[in-house]
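Researcher: We're teaching a course module on how sequence relates to structure. For the next exercise, students receive a sequence and then see the predicted structure as tokens, so they can try to spot secondary structure elements on their own. Here is the exercise chain.
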Amino acid sequence: MQPEPTATDGGATLLGQGLFWQDMRVGATFRTYTRTITETDLVSFVTLTGMTDSAFLDATLVGPMGGRPVPGVLTLSIIEGFIIQSLIRGTGLAMLGYTLEPLAPVHVGDTVHAIIEFTGVRSTSTGNRAIVDSTITIFNQRAEPVMRYSSRRLIAGRTEAE
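Model: And here is the predicted structure for the students to work with:
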């Protein structure tokens, strides 16, 4: 899955390559970086997706969740971005499915990160790839879990050259 070498790379090792399925072990855990969710994140996301509910756009409205809530899928998207940029960059082939369990609201100004745990790794019969299951728990800045989801992904395997 690594890009073809170029005449200028001198055989240098590619940085940022995700894990191949052969490197994923059941029980292994990884922690993402953190990110503070901003007003700009909220407004851009709800405008892009059409989720223009007053609960997200009216800064004077204080609803039952307190503070300025953000859509759960925005929180999920930020964590998925971390996973793609680091854990499966260049090796992730497909998201096969996920189940989501919201645990607590996330608000503008909250800082989120996640813990990823591999819960299953099964090679497929063709194509040097595997189905990898994981549980991702998202936390806020107070170390409170705010969301948990299980994912099933198709992950590429290492080639002979790698």
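Model: If you want an answer key for the exercise: The CA atoms of residues 93 and 154 lie 5 Å apart. The chain has a mean pLDDT of 90.
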